[in-house]
Give the backbone structure.
Amino acid sequence: RRVLFRSERVVSKSPESSLSLRFIATRVYLVMDSKKQSQIKVLLDGQPLPPKYYTEDMDEKGNIVVQDARKYDVINLKGDYAPHEITLIFPEEVAAYAFTFGDEN
């Protein structure tokens, strides 16, 4: 899928663009922005995110709802600290800036 790389961000340029990242943490955050309200699909290790790991930035289906330029709570593994891969599936024109991580519950 098309993705536009800029010096400080990645911008999805086609529907269903994806970004994958291997990590070891219990919390994952990502600064994102969108010109319109957008829903980002979240996969954990290639599977839909289990509801027990949903965050306050997700809708009832586990999608992150991006409306404003800010840090979004992408995943909360509730203390299940282990290596994982997260995949985010973006609609067009969503910008992703910086991942941050945490280990708090």
Remarks:
- Residues 15 and 102 are 30 Å apart (CA to CA).
- The radius of gyration is 13 Å.
- The longest strand covers residues 17-25.
